[in-house]
Amino acid sequence: MARYAGRYDFKIEEEALLQAQSAEVHAALVHKVSRERFGMELEKVFKAKNPVACLQQLADFGLFRVLFELPELYMLDDTEVWAVMNADEVESTVLINDYG
Question: What's the rounded Cα separation, in Å, for the pair 91 and 50?
Answer without folding.
Answer: 24
